[in-house]
Amino acid sequence: MSVHDEREPLAPRTTSLYDYALFRHGIEPDGAVPRKGFPLPDGPPSPEPGRDDLTWQQAQAEVTDALTPLLADPDPVRAAEAVHRRVAELALNRRTVRAHTARLALADEDAARRTARQLIRTGTDVAAVGVGMTLLVRLGEPEDVPCLQALGMLRGLEDAAIAALDPLDRQAAALLYIRCRERSGELTPLTDAVASGDAEATRSALLSLTDESVMWLGRRLAEAAGLHGLLRARPQDADLLALTGRLLHRMADQQDGRADILGYPPARAVYEALVRHADRLPPTPEHRSLLLSIALDLHSGPAVLLNWRPGRRRALLDALDGLLPAAAPEPVPGDREADWFRRNRHLPFARAEDGDRPRWEVVVVHGSAESSAVETRILADGVPLVAALFGKGQGSPPEYLLDSGRLRAAPEPREVQLAEAYCTEGCCGALYVTIRRDGDEVVWDGWRGAVGPPPPPYRFDAAAYDAELARAERDHSWCWPARSTARLIAAGLRERPELTARWELSQHWVGTDWQNPDTVVLHLRHEPSAPPPGTGGSLSFHWSLPDDDGPPRDRADAVLRRLETNDPKAFATFGGGNDELAQALGYRPPPPAPQT
User: Fold this and answer.
1) How many other CB atoms are found less than 10 A from the CB of residue 458?
2) Closest of 385, 314, 376, 388 to residue 356, by C-alpha
3) What are phi and psi of 356, to 5 degrees?
4) Is the Cβ–Cβ distance between 350 and 313 less than 8 Å?
5) Helices (H), 475-546
6) Residue ranges of E strands in 335-454
7) Tens digit of pLDDT for each residue in 465-501?
8) How high is the pLDDT of residue 329?
9) What is the pTM of this model?
10) How far is 520 from 386, CA to CA, in rounded Å?
11) What is the mean pLDDT of residues 573-580?
């Protein structure tokens, strides 16, 4: 078919979305694309159809029945016209149609590819063009990149364009991703420099990024700037090496879901380049903590799952061990950076993999100086199980898994939650395993919530399992004073539940404040045994204890003594709950958070 034939319009009443996008871009004086993209030709889209009478399986069946026969039609013009009609008849919103289109079994991939191209080049309907773009996630080829880039300039098609560009042109996908999601304008110099093709300007713009708020874009920043190529050209650039470390550490973060490091193809080569030239970094406390964070990622984080050559990851860890001070510096009061380094210096270098022995490592993820995340990393055969089997969030904290004794094995099987999705279990699930003792072995099986194929049972020598678990339960070297205080308070409340029960309170959570790790916070829940008539539910209260430099044991004992005689509802902060109950008991709702 000729190019002219392929570009025959599907409907005489309007210009194709592709031609419209090119037109809008062409009439912009500076060629810039608005952050939110160009509006669709007919203005804001009308409310999308949405049917709540269909299950996921029923919607999949409707999309399959409607589209599968059309995508095998050897005539792409006829097939595309039919897709336009059938998509409108489905009465499903665009996102739902795309989600099910991605799962279609294609009998003739070549015919489906031709139809997809006809849809994106001449399509006039957003939903139908979205079907074409979704098909090109699987079927696209480099020649499709310019058309996908153009359609990505239109509101409502950005996500579909990013998904289709990712397998074809990572830089183009990253630039579009950044434009759609970056809010402050700080990244405009970087995207402009990348568009100009000036490597030095790109390097300068990348190094100018000092705001941690943009680091969550770590992989996209690296892909947009061509970080791997910049490092090859400037392997001994200390500033570039430091930024590389920050981006790699951010990509290995699981707090917001699957670690981006696993979707970054040059990851191994970039780690190699960073470690090979890390001696160029000035020996500052910041760089020292950065290299230790990289070591923790390589030892027990998602970076372990990269396709390393045998022994290579161990060699990188040995090199980092040699670069870091052998003796941790003496703690300095108030210097959280130095304290974190002192507590974690040994962890990634303490031992090599232990064969089939499990290992639990409590890791305080080093982010900014004002926050810290604590997770329990479970290693089997040296593989971090939560990252390998779940990937939707980090492992549960040690207070939940270790302090509670949940991981101890007994003949009676016990199901244990190892991790919860970053957005809560109710949204995206959680990872569960059933633990039981079987003779001289401990068995982990009955997995629930794992992503991908069902994991196999894990069998551990019971004596080795018990010894390792006892070591992890005793090891508090990772713990800073406020966290120790919180753990002691939680243990005291487990041993003496009457301290809160007498006030009709239950312990909901005890820990340290996310933004102020030196502040202990008790979250308590009040559910009256005899609520006022017409009310019900519960109320929440939180009691904050800023650091006073006292020993953790003394601080915890003081809290427990106060609970013996004082009702926390009288002095803790009311955090909300059932409105009718709060009003009846005289509690005012908390003021709204200040706008930033």
Assistant:
1) 19
2) 385
3) -90, 10
4) no
5) 481-495, 498-501
6) 359-366, 372-380, 383-384, 414-420, 430-438, 441-448
7) 999 999 999 998 888 899 999 999 999 999 999 999 9
8) 63
9) 0.86
10) 27
11) 92
**DSSP 3-state of 366:** strand
What is the CA angle 333-335-341, rounded to 5?
115
**Closest listed residue to residue 249, CA positions, set 222, 283, 224:** 222
Please say whether the beta carbons of 539 and 572 come within 8 A: no
| Tens-digit pLDDT profile for residues 20-71 | 999 999 998 877 888 888 998 876 555 666 666 788 899 999 999 999 999 9
DSSP letter (8 states) at residue 154? B
What is the CB neighbour count within 10 angstroms for residue 206? Answer: 25
Confidence of residue 372 (pLDDT cuts 50, 70, 90): low
* Cα–Cα distance measured from residue 17 to residue 119, given in angstroms and rounded to the nearest whole number: 10
Q: Mapping DSSP to helix (H, G, I), strand (E, B) and coil, where does residue 288 land?
A: helix
Report the alpha-carbon distance of residue 449 to residue 57 in Å, rounded.
Answer: 19
Structure tokens given for 408: 């101890």
DSSP state letters, 259-287: -GGGG-TTHHHHHHHHHHTGGGS---HHH
Distances (CA, A) of 195 to 83, 188, 190, 202, 314: 35, 10, 9, 9, 38
Q: In what order do the strands lie in the sheet with 505-512?
A: 505-512, 520-526, 539-545, 573-577
Give the separation between CA 414 and CA 420, rounded to whole angstroms. 17
Q: How far apart are CA 274 and CA 261, in angstroms?
A: 15
